[in-house]
Amino acid sequence: MNLFGTLRAPRELHVGSGQRHALGGIAAKLGKRALFVTDARLSADAEFLAMVQHVKDAGVTCRIDASTLPDVPVESAITAANGAQEFAPDLVIGVGGGSCLDMAKCVALLLTHGGRPQDYYGENLVSGPIIPLIAVPTTAGTGSEVTPVAVLSDSERTLKVGISSPFLIPTTSICDPDLTLSCPASLTAIAGADALTHAIEAFTAVRREPVPGIAQQRVFVGKNAISDQFALSAITLLWEGLEAACQNGSDRTAREKVMLGATLAGLAFGVAGTAAAHAIQYPVGALTHTAHGLGVACLLPYVMTWNAPAIGAELTQIAQAAGLSGGDAVIPALASLFERIGIPKSLSALGLDEARIDWVAEQSLGIARLIQNNPRPLNAHEMRNLVAAAHGGDLSKLN
């Protein structure tokens, strides 16, 4: 095997308790007119308002856009960008969960390059850098603070859509676990399970031939020597911290591990990509309207069971990272962890109608960038069996 690794990341990444207090000084070096992008709930939060004041105190003129909605409807991003034109920001600061950060990316993109989000759907269609963007996550899960992806919902399409470009990676990210202390156990579980799925799918993704220029041709290049290190560290941290953070939200050590784990998982999948669990979740989410993290985590044990013949070495390394006895223990232990924190065990428990199994399988196979990243190929019959096994909650139907 040729040693190959690649990394894309913010120019600056700050992780740790209290790091939000550095926002004013960071913002002042990047711009003079800052547009804060958040949601209605956070816009009245004392911690959020304190961050805005810190930026104002640093001499930066600020405006707040609190219009972010779940799943970022395309129209909302267009409206926000149009509404910000007369303010003429030279800096965007996204504060909140994954939707707020994705909204901030879209607004910064449209303010810089114009057009509509639809013009950029897919990979590598952003023509150049966007205005400086600071990301401040208040949940630990999506990794959007370090990834080249913004996910939106489009009323003209059944499934969510994505804009993928290295130019969307924030300039600076501040990951302060103190901002997650108020997250309820259910949100902590969903976000953390999403992060663990990111780490495992990145670590078990297909390994491609590292032809020169592959990272310019593809946003997601598959597993590599650098992404593997981030993924394994993320697995260790999330395995150690996630259940504890769900059980006791004021456990600062657990919160720190989950926050850092989610960010490292984002750095891993931001270049390696994800795979079949994410592909299947897109149509499942469209039908059930359940949280993304619930869907991918529910699916992960089934996808890993299907992939097991192709990922023996990786399962052994995951076991070492998680402190398990061996590769054979990984999938049962993962399923048990997810069950303990409240992740549904089957797609039927998520509300998927059995009659839609065939449609889900067909749509999943159509998401080629993710299916091609899966370490074990899937044809139409095999995908249908995989979805059916996940729907019935029966791992024994695989392999």
Can you describe what's shown?
This protein has 16 helices and 9 strands. It has 399 residues and is of the alpha/beta class. The strands form 2 sheets. A 6-stranded parallel sheet has the order 1-9-6-4-2-3, with helices on both faces. A 3-stranded mixed sheet has the order 5-8-7. Strand 7 (149-152) and strand 8 (161-164) form a beta hairpin. Helix 8 packs across helix 12. 52% of the residues are buried. The model has no long low-confidence stretch (mean pLDDT 97).
Task: Supply database-style keywords.
399 residues; alpha/beta; 6-stranded parallel beta sheet; 49% helix; globular
Strand order of the largest sheet: 1-9-6-4-2-3
Helix fraction by DSSP (H/I, runs of at least 4): 40-55%
Q: List unreliable stretches of 5+ residues.
A: none
The number of distinct helices, counting runs of at least 4 residues, comes to 16
Number of DSSP strands? 9
Residue share in β-strands: 5-15%
H/E element string?
A: EHEHHEHEHEEEEEHHHHHHHHHHH
Q: Quickly give the structural class.
A: alpha/beta
Radius of gyration, rounded? 20 Å
Shape: globular
Our measurement of the CA-to-CA distance between the termini, rounded to an integer number of angstroms, reads: 28 Å
Major sheet details: 6 strands, parallel
Mean pLDDT rating: 97
Chain-wise SSE layout:
Layout: E1 12-15, H1 23-30, E2 33-37, H2 40-43, H3 46-57, E3 61-65, H4 74-84, E4 91-96, H5 98-113, E5 122-123, E6 133-137, E7 149-152, E8 161-164, E9 172-175, H6 185-203, H7 214-217, H8 225-247, H9 252-272, H10 276-288, H11 292-307, H12 312-322, H13 330-340, H14 357-365, H15 368-371, H16 380-392
Parallel strand pairs: 1-9, 2-3, 2-4, 4-6, 5-8, 6-9
Antiparallel strand pairs: 7-8
